[in-house]
Amino acid sequence: MTTIALNLQSVRARIAAACAAAGRDVNEVTLLAVAKTFGPDAVREAHAAGANAIGENYIQEAVEKQLLLSDLDLQWHCIGPIQSNKTRLVATHFDWAQTVDRLKIAQRLNEQRPADLPPLAVCIQVNIDGGPSKSGVAPGEVLALAREVHALPRLALRGLMTIPEPVDDFAGQLAVHRKARTLFEDLRDAGLPLDTLSMGMTADMEAAIHAGSTMVRVGTAIFGGRGAAR
Ligand SMILES: *Cc1c(COP(=O)(O)O)cnc(C)c1O
């Protein structure tokens, strides 16, 4: 087996163990393989080992990779910041946009989603821990934005996505992820038909799963370290 195949196997084992510990069905948690900075060959290897959902942060880099992998049946998720001048690329080349945090970006994606594609699946990115990264809507503003995004016909609002600041201990990770879970349930109670809570990465996927994550986004544990360049 290749390194990537072995890594995928151990990530799946981590997910299964976390689900078992949390009393959850392993099928409730989707694995998104985050391939930023890794080339098309690495993605091809991951696909051969069963990965079919790929997360990318850098939109231009992703589009170039997609061209070289068009023979594969892959679902592409944009998980990086989306500037206004990149919305057309996202609307045209991706299946999911997980980092919507402003109505203006949602409106552009809605207008630019090609008619021959299904609605673009969308998550609203929430700044769940008030971290210094400017991305993500404040928790108190999520419901209003979610209602507006839900009304856009060429988008399919699926849920929430978070990127909390790194925390070392399980209890601390769990506390932050539980806040996101509560917010997610609040939105569902308000009538929004959400099914996706995208949270948890290499370092904190167990805590995220414990708190109710339905999608973990894993890069390092599958593809290896990315070095300091990015
Ligand atoms: C890079 C990245 C990941 C994966 O992080 P790892 O720690 O390498 O697993 C997940 N989500 C987002 C938004 C990222 O930018």
UniProtKB/TrEMBL annotation:
InterPro entries, per database record: Ala_racemase_N (IPR001608), PLP-binding_barrel (IPR029066), PyrdxlP_homeostasis (IPR011078)
Chain ranges of the Alanine racemase N-terminal domain: 7-226
UniProtKB keywords: Pyridoxal phosphate
Coiled coil: none
N6-(pyridoxal phosphate)lysine PTM positions: 36
Family: Belongs to the pyridoxal phosphate-binding protein YggS/PROSC family.
Main function: Pyridoxal 5'-phosphate (PLP)-binding protein, which is involved in PLP homeostasis.
Identification of the protein by name: Pyridoxal phosphate homeostasis protein
Phylogenetic placement of the source organism: Bacteria, Pseudomonadati, Pseudomonadota, Betaproteobacteria, Burkholderiales
